[in-house]
């Protein structure tokens, strides 16, 4: 499953390993209990940094641990117990197995991983070092390397990283046992698909969404770009992000959801998104579905009235709320107030209203 589709120019592995379903969701073909999203990635590290500034504490270690556990579940689907045993017996090369994961990461937009050095003798002094160039998110890509080595070897790893050059980072995974109580807190439920009525146009050759032809893959760099607006994209799991917010909320209280929304709102207002890029409601519905963010059921946008939006089966709801608030404020040059609710079924309702400014006579 190598190379690009002859028609839409999307990597065959990108559409071959994943399914776009009928309720605005993307899932892994090997195990449809794992949901994915295809989203703009340049806002991820600024989102984390904005949260750190608001709460006054670093969160990179929380991000790395949450993402590592989620990616471990995904990557383990590619490694059988038989293959893992052969790696331990050195009948199969550990480096060759990691080469396969690094080759898989590039079409997903993660950046370029390259082998640096390793030691594999089956003891505490082992390590596996790579470099990452142009990571889509530094902590998430660091977590990806640790998860890959864990998936291959079957036991916990820690990870360290440092900047080697602008945009290039050295990352080293090593045997490390994670606390059991931390493991338990990060367990996430599997995704359960609910039928919807979205029908995306399909590429006649590979069967992927036809809209993916609007993106360009630079496979040598591990980069995906939106052709129309020049933004970088990446395929990732919402369960890489949601546990970060859940863990922070458990540690710091129920103000964290608004911290996430506020950080996303502020970054969006830097010009990252534009309301005028979406031509109409149906166009926006397709955009959300191709990204796996959910099924847009209602949206009304008015300068004086604000925004009313309902998204069924929503993924990354806090980020979506902050994005919509920032888009509205940028489009109409107003400040706003936002309220939202996520139902037990995962449906998101959003109400954004302009703030009333009192002027003294």
Please tag this protein with its features.
single chain, about 350 residues, alpha+beta, 2 domains, six-stranded antiparallel sheet, four-stranded antiparallel sheet, globular
3D architecture notes:
This protein is of the alpha+beta class. The strands form three sheets. The protein has a six-stranded antiparallel β-sheet. Strands 4-5-7-6 form a four-stranded antiparallel β-sheet, with helices on one face. Helix 5 runs antiparallel to helix 6 and helix 9 crosses helix 11. The radius of gyration is 21 Å and the shape is globular. The N and C termini lie far apart (70 Å). The C terminus is likely disordered.
- What's the main sheet like? 6 strands, antiparallel
**Total count of helical runs of at least 4 residues:** 11
> What's the Cα radius of gyration?
21 Å
Order of SSEs: HEEEHHHHEEHEEHEEEHHHEEHEE
The secondary-structure class comes to alpha+beta
Tell me the total number of β-strands: 14
Distance between the termini: 70 Å
Helix content: 25-40%
Outline = globular
Number of domains: 2
- Mean pLDDT over all positions: 90
- Residue share in β-strands: 15-25%
Which residues form runs of ≥5 with pLDDT under 50? 357-361
Strand order of the largest sheet: 1-2-3-10-9-8
């Amino acid at each position: 499953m190598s190379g690009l589709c002859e028609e839409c120019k999307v990597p065959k592995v990108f559409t071959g390993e994943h399914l776009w379903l009928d309720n605005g969701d993307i899932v892994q073909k090997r195990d449809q209990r794992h949901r994915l999203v295809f989203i703009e990635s340049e806002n991820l590290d600024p989102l984390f940094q904005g949260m750190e500034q608001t709460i006054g504490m670093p969160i990179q270690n929380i991000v790395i641990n949450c993402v590592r556990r989620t990616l471990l579940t995904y990557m383990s689907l590619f490694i059988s117990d038989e293959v893992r045993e052969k790696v331990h017996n050195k009948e199969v090369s550990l480096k060759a197995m990691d080469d396969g994961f690094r080759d898989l990461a590039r079409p997903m937009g993660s950046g370029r991983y390259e082998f640096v050095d390793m030691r594999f003798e089956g003891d505490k002094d082992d390590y596996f070092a790579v470099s990452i160039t142009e990571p889509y998110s530094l902590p998430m890509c660091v977590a990806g390397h640790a998860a890959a080595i864990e998936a291959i070897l079957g036991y916990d790893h820690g990870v360290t990283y440092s900047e080697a050059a602008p945009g290039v980072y050295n990352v080293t995974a090593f045997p490390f046992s994670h606390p059991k109580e931390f493991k338990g807190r990060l367990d996430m439920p599997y995704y359960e698909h609910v039928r919807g009525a979205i029908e995306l146009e399909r590429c006649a050759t590979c069967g992927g969404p036809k809209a993916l032809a609007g993106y360009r893959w630079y496979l040598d760099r591990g980069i995906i770009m939106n052709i129309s607006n020049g933004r970088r994209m990446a395929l990732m799991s919402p369960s890489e992000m949601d546990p970060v917010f859940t863990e922070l909320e458990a540690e710091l209280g129920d103000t964290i959801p608004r911290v996430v929304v506020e950080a996303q709102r502020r970054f969006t207002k830097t010009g990252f998104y534009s309301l005028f890029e979406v031509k109409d409601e149906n166009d926006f519905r397709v955009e959300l579905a191709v990204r796996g963010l959910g099924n847009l059921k209602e949206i009304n946008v008015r300068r004086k009235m604000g925004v009313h939006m309902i998204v069924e089966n929503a993924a990354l709801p806090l980020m979506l709320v902050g994005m919509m608030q920032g888009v509205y404020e940028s489009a109409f040059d107003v400040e706003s107030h936002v309220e939202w609710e996520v139902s037990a079924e995962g449906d998101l309702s959003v109400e954004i209203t302009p703030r009333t400014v009192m002027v003294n006579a």
